Amino acid sequence: MPAAAGTGYRLTEDQVLLRDTLRDLADEQIAPRAAEIDRTGEFPQDIRRLLARYDVLALPFPEAYGGVGADLLTLAIAIEQIARACTTSSLILTVQSLATLPILLGGSEEQKARFFPDLASGRKLAAFGLTEPEAGSDAGAARTRAVRDGDDYVIDGGKRFITNGSVADLITVFAVTDPDAKTSRRLSCFAVEVPTPGFSVVRLEHKLGIRGSPTAELAFEQMRVPAANRIGEEGDGWKLAMATFDRSRPGIAAQAVGIAQGALDAAVAYARDRKQFGQRIGDFQMVQAMLADMDARTEAARQLTYKACVEVDAGGPEASRWASIAKLVAGDAAMSVTTDAVQVFGGYGYTDDFPVERMMRDAKITQLYEGTQQIQRLVIARALLGR
Amino acid sequence: MKLVVLAKPVPDPAAAAERLGPDDRLDRSAAPNVINGNDEYTLEAALQIADAHPGEVEITLVAMAPANGAETLRKGLAMGATRGLLITDPALAGSDAWSTARVLATALKDVEYDLILAGFDTSDGVAGVVGPAVATLLKLPYLSSAAKIEPDLAAGTVRVRRISPTGFDVLEAPMPALIVGTQLLGTPRYPSLKGIMGARSKEVALRSVTDLGLATAGDGAVGGAAARTTVTAKRTPPARGAARVVRGPAADAAKEIAAFLAERRLI
User: CA–CA separation, B58 vs B115, rounded Å?
Assistant: First the structure.
């Protein structure tokens, strides 16, 4: 799978086999659990074990550390297939990748050897700790402080909206090491192994969607982290966070594509089955037009996402633009396609007898996290205007 | 221990795109190909034998199919088979079950094996005769309808639980032997992603009719031209009646379904 992308416009044989395998796995093992995960709001440890068993959580990690060493496109294909069945479940893989990207991009070989094997095997989960109550889109305004003390850093502060923050064993925490520096040099990144003294989970959010994925508020009180767990140099945090987003946003775009495809599949099946006025509702042109538009929007978002993956993997100055364009378009596609899917189902779609209302609630998050749609537009405009 | 699994690439029944070609035979390019469902069950049985004897079992997938069959066999390699052997030749298109059995049996003469496992039947041909025919041609003990396969390498025997109308028969035979399996062998596993990665480096050997020393014309010929069965007529199966969909809370739906079945004296 590595390096195969970009050599041709079609997926490689391996990518097709991986896609089909994960589609079967998701249809047969994950989809039947999705409604219950949403209803109970419990983190699906069974799905985590399932993904670990089939090496799905190994995808983002290099082969040398027990991973599969997948390129970004292959990872996106995997996220898409899981999200098609259950967004919460897809987040397990998405966040395992997101949270460890700072280590992959800026960590030492020693750190990779220490952290990656347990993460690749799925024995441990990771979370990404950047957002704070007053530092969301304005991530540079973070207040969590890390002060050097001998061989350690002492971290005080807290984080909010940390996906899987209460179930993670390793959290990449961004904290201010130089309050007086400019935004791009204020932050440093630390691999925090939890539980550790001074670390606590304050509360979990009650959310519209992705309800099985715990979104945690974390507090750090005199939390000591070995200096050996600092990722990169002091002041590298911002740079690492931005480089992480270039690689993680296409994953969110893939998640959005998966949600849209799941809703489209459900709507098509329903339009074939449901009869009104003596015929299948799929025989009505107004329904046909909706389904056709949903398919076109989903496919357009998918192709853009795949292209973004290849461009980001290739590197270069356009990486941020591609990542943001894909996330912007795919997030909006997921929202509109799932909303239309509910419309195709009519009143039934508004109930939890069918999966489309869940998909519609889940879709909304793809317009919000890893940079709101407004932040994506900001990134794109900056690329255009050369700022 | 060396196991052979007969694994036929067939049009994916889930694609619902099967159609006939101009010769009224199955158009094999109409739908994406997958390994025949029943063959995946016998592959699963072989993989379970391999799991129970780590490092001691080699599994060779053997198939006769068009050249793109190598791609289809890759899933079996990703599931854990060791290597593939594909007999492919344009002259084999349109082969009947007799030809297929001859070709497979001839190819297997060059393969080392303790057991050959075959699926109950294939979803495209549904004849269910190729497995027994291969056993006959190779003069192997033939154990059918296996629900469980227990080889004893030290004793050189294999014990099979054969499903019967009243329960199970226990059969034992010396190895090598050919076993036709059932879906009771266990649900086929998904390939792991590392398995998919590893499958790329596994070999699928290709053999033509000439490689096997067989002929496509004259006495004892194999292939489409020598087929002993012909298509004499075709008809579309009658359409299924409209399905009745039961909706509502599970408890109410269960009652409705039970009443429906009871009405027809099915329960």
Answer: 11
B194 contacts A55? CB cut-off 8 A? yes
| Mean pLDDT, rounded, of chain A | 95
Using pLDDT thresholds of 50, 70 and 90, give the confidence band for residue A387: low
**Full residue range of the structural domain in which residue A270 is found:** 238-385
Q: For the whole model, what pTM was predicted? A: 0.88
Helices (H) and strands (E) in chain B, counts: 6, 11
Q: Count of CB atoms within 10 A of residue A381's CB?
A: 12
pLDDT cut 90: percent of chain A above it: 94
Same domain, A288 and A381: yes
- Are B71 and A13 within 8 A, CB to CB? yes
Out of A63, A94, A120, a domain closes at: A120
Nearest CA in chain A to B250: A353
Alpha-carbon span B91 to B89, nearest angstrom: 5
Tell me whether residues A14 and B200 touch, CB distance under 8 A.
yes
B49-103 confidence digits (pLDDT tens)? 999 999 999 999 999 999 999 999 999 999 999 999 999 999 999 899 999 999 9
ipTM given for this complex: 0.80
- A379 and A279 housed in the same domain: yes
Domain presence at residue B148: yes
In the predicted model, is pLDDT for residue A6 greater than 70? no
Torsion of CA B227, B229, B230, B234, to 10 degrees: -140
Q: Is A370 a catalytic residue?
A: yes
Domain limits at B141?
A: 2-226
Q: Is residue A2 part of a domain?
A: no
Taking only residues 353 to 382 of chain A, the set having a beta carbon closer than 8 angstroms to any beta carbon of chain B reads 353
CATH number at residue A41: 1.10.540.10
CB < 8 Å from B in window 255-274 of A: 273
**What is the DSSP code (8-state) at residue A121?**
T
Across residues A43-59, what is the average pLDDT?
97
Alpha-carbon gap: A301 to the closest alpha carbon of chain B (Å): 24
